[in-house]
Write a structure and sequence with these properties.
Layout: H1 4-17, E1 21-22, H2 46-49, H3 55-59, E2 63-71, E3 87-95, H4 101-114, E4 121-125, H5 135-143, E5 149-152, H6 154-157, E6 158-159, E7 166-176, E8 179-191, E9 197-210, H7 211-218, H8 228-234, H9 243-261, H10 270-292, H11 303-310, H12 312-323, H13 332-347, H14 350-358, H15 366-376, H16 380-386, H17 396-417, E10 425-426, E11 431-432, H18 435-459, E12 466-471, E13 476-481, H19 488-503, E14 507-514, H20 515-520, E15 534-541, E16 548-553, E17 568-577, E18 580-587
Parallel strand pairs: 1-2, 4-5
Antiparallel strand pairs: 2-3, 3-9, 4-7, 6-7, 7-8, 8-9, 10-11, 12-13, 13-18, 14-15, 15-16, 17-18
Helix pairs in contact: 4-5, 8-12, 9-10, 9-12, 9-13, 10-11, 10-13, 15-17, 18-19
Length: about 600
């Protein structure tokens, strides 16, 4: 049996021997702002297909190969059957004008021979009114001896642009044991916004082969969850577990391990919200398992906390041990700390949440379901899992409509609070209704930079980074990554450090420079922010000694010297989300 480590190794060695540069997986948090998480192997290579980056300059080669961590949120609700996953690994080879159809198909044919997997049949694009049939690919397959070639339409064998325009082209797919194993995309057209297709000057190749599917076929398993990719994790789950729930655990535990190790923290927005949905779905099922288990009846242990220490932590640690040789960024200590905090937070409400759902109407509507999510953290998927009869009339579409209504109401409330659309300043981070408020916001904004620097100095942790801020004329709210609650002494010392910088009347100096130079200079920046090529760097330094107190990339308004700020008072330090703390501060004058 060929285990997953050997499959990865064989794939990368195969393409390395054929002149490809092996590129490591990019993070699940993409540089591409059009997607929430990395969805495919080609994600990190998009700039090379559209001429915004030079492959020869960056890789020394026009051809690369990778094993990419990937995540698709659209499949969360389907997890539990034999094939759907959220996290998966994608094997791929890519060419940015180095080779095209003949070589790409030849490589596919040769790799299947090397791993001893017979090709059952292949598909090619059959053409339509706009794009001709891919007769070239069909001819190449026939020359290689493949006779079962099936023509398919655009829905099956044509890869379209990810947005309104972009590279696109026909695909050819390789099937074995009745399932699609490898998809080879030929980017030979550019789709314009008006949906007109024009030939690309330099066509490219983009392929993707799911490791989980390939392992299932090579290891002769009935489904992906029986492969070695899940076997060590599965051993840590209780025997006799419902098979659908077991698969949810296997997927969600593995996915959360990778999300957390790539810097995602549970929260109520973006990738953090996806992580929270995964964790809390597992938590609810663990709670129910222990609640219903006779061996735990009559004791006083918090069954949620007890259960997660039995199952989640053991299975997650097994996942780290299994994957860390290939993905060295997996960090068990960080994973444990993040999940532990989320467990403590959710354990306070889970019993009330389930009790509330049990007392709800016999048939929930979308609004009632959404309120259970908003008030108690019971996601749509969890509600469907634990009471499908009560959720019979609620679809994902109806649930999402309620979410959009909620967003509109929240947005209207913010506009009302800050004077409607007549705000003098509204950057998302900074809000001011008039000139007077603008002066206060400017002082608080610079104070927030001092606060960021003071936290790193006092806590002696250079890994602390900004995770969001919100500044009004009344206060600043600053979120930062840190695994624990600050002590009263630490809070006092942070406040004193900020006010010492204020008292020294330090200069606040703005410089413009290229983004890359700013990062090299050590300037702090918000890691999720997309910055332009030319950026502003604000440095707070002592004009007499040259001592630098703070240095950050920023585009907002600032004071000219720190004495303008006035005395800063920390009002509260609290948890924002797992692994993220929040400080609220105001000015004494």
């Amino acid at each position: 049996m060929m285990n997953s480590n050997k499959i990865r190794k064989k794939f990368l060695e195969f393409f390395k021997k054929r002149g490809h540069k092996i590129v490591p997986s990019s993070s699940l948090i993409p540089d591409d702002p059009s997607v929430l998480l990395t969805t495919a192997g080609m994600q990190q290579f998009k700039p090379y297909y559209i001429g915004k980056a030079d492959a020869m300059k960056d890789f020394g080669c026009l051809n690369v190969a990778s094993v990419q961590k990937s995540f698709r949120t659209s499949d969360i609700g389907e997890v539990g059957d034999e094939s759907h996953l959220t996290f998966f690994e994608m094997l791929g080879n890519f060419s940015f004008g180095g080779y095209f159809k003949k070589e790409a198909i030849q490589y596919g044919y040769e790799f299947f021979k090397e791993i001893g997997l017979p090709i059952e049949y292949v598909t090619v694009f059959g053409g339509d009114a706009e794009i001709p049939a891919d007769e070239k690919s069909e001819k190449i397959w026939r020359e290689l001896g493949v006779t079962d070639i099936r023509r398919k339409g655009r829905e099956d064998n044509f890869w379209g642009p990810t947005g309104s325009e972009g590279p696109c082209g026909p695909t050819t797919e390789i099937y074995a044991n009745g399932i699609e194993i490898w998809n080879i995309v030929f980017n030979e057209y550019y789709c314009k916004p008006d949906k007109i297709f024009v030939p690309l000057e330099k066509p490219g190749v983009d392929t993707g082969m799911g490791l989980e599917r390939l392992a299932m076929v090579l290891q002769k398993k009935k489904n992906i969850f029986e492969t070695d990719l899940f076997s060590e994790i599965s051993k840590k789950l209780p025997s006799g577990m419902d098979e659908r729930i077991r698969r949810i655990f296997l997927d969600h535990i593995r996915a959360s391990v990778f999300l957390i190790s790539d810097g995602v923290q549970p929260s109520n927005k973006g990738a953090g919200f996806v992580l929270r949905r995964l964790l809390r779905r597992v938590m609810v099922h663990e709670y129910l398992i222990h609640k219903n288990a006779k061996q735990y009846s009559g004791n006083n242990v918090d069954v949620l906390t007890f259960g997660l220490r039995d199952y989640y932590f053991a299975a997650a640690e097994a996942a780290v041990d299994f994957y860390k040789n290939f993905y060295q960024e997996l960090n068990w200590k960080t994973i444990h700390a993040v999940v532990d905090e989320e467990v403590q937070r959710f354990s306070r409400v889970v019993k009330d949440a389930l009790r509330k759902m049990a007392k709800s109407p016999a048939r929930l509507d979308a609004r009632e379901s959404f309120l259970l999510d908003q008030s108690y953290g019971l996601s749509f998927e969890v509600q469907k899992d634990i009471d499908p009869v009560r959720m019979q009339n609620v679809t994902r579409e109806k649930f999402d409509e309620e979410f959009k209504k909620h967003q509109e109401i929240s947005r209207a409330g913010i506009e009302k609070k800050f004077g409607g659309h007549g705000l003098l300043l509204d950057t998302g981070e900074l809000k001011a209704a008039d000139e007077e408020e603008l002066k206060k916001v400017t002082r608080l904004h610079t104070a927030t930079h001092l606060l960021n620097a003071a936290l790193r100095k006092v806590l002696q942790d250079q890994n602390i980074r900004q995770d969001g801020s919100d500044i009004t004329a009344e206060r600043t709210r600053f979120d930062f990554t840190f695994p624990r609650k600050l002590t009263p002494e630490e809070i006092k010392k942070v406040e004193d450090t900020v006010n010492e910088a204020v008292a020294k009347n330090m200069d606040v100096v703005r410089e413009e420079m290229p983004y890359a130079d700013a990062v090299k200079s050590g300037a702090l920046h918000f890691f999720r922010e997309k910055y332009p090529e030319q950026v502003s760097v604000y440095t707070v330094r002592d004009g007499k000694t040259g001592e630098v107190f703070s240095k950050e990339l920023c585009g907002g308004p600032h004071v000219l010297c720190t004495s303008e700020i006035g005395r800063v008072k920390i009002i509260k330090e609290e948890s924002s989300s797992a692994g993220v703390r929040r400080i609220r501060a105001a000015l004494d004058r």
